[in-house]
Amino acid sequence: MAEESRRWSQRVAETSDALDLEPGVFTLDDPREVALSLQRSAEKSRRRKADPFRSAMSMLNFYINRAGRQLPAERRRRLEAAKDELRRLYGRPTRSSSGD
């Protein structure tokens, strides 16, 4: 089952209308740099099906979800912070400002 899942996620990343990401985007230390890189990729892409914000957020969520428990806590915090940075870049409300 794990091998099937791994092949499935690899196939999605390689053949879907996913964004062409800059190398190492998810390993950057600064959440704002992660968000800016995703924004550049989303706005440059012509293969995406959704608007740039949704495409960028989708790729970030896909990475976080596929990494699961293997993702170190500190990197998870940075990537979660990158979600708020991405929201700011696109003028969307952040989690902290939505009253949660």
Description:
The protein contains four helices and no strands. With 100 residues, the chain is mainly alpha-helical. The protein has one domain. Helix 2 crosses helix 4 (73-89) and helix 3 packs antiparallel against helix 4. The longest helix is centred in the last third of the chain and has 17 residues, at 73-89. 18% of the residues are buried.
Tell me the layout of helices and strands:
Blueprint: H1 2-15, H2 31-44, H3 52-67, H4 73-89
Helix pairs in contact: 2-3, 2-4, 3-4
What structural keywords apply?
100 residues; mainly alpha
- Radius of gyration, whole Å: 14 Å
| Largest beta-sheet details | none
- Tell me the number of strands: 0
Q: Kindly state the mean pLDDT as a whole number?
A: 84
How far apart the termini lie comes to 36 Å
Helix count, per DSSP? 4
Globally, the shape reads globular
Structural class: mainly alpha
- Which stretches are poorly predicted, pLDDT < 50 over at least 5 residues? none
Amount of helix: 55-70%
Please indicate the count of domains: 1
Give a short synopsis of this structure:
By secondary structure, the chain is mainly α. It has helices at residues 2-15, 31-44, 52-67, 73-89. Helix 2 (31-44) crosses helix 3 (52-67), helix 2 (31-44) packs across helix 4 and helix 3 packs antiparallel against helix 4 (73-89).
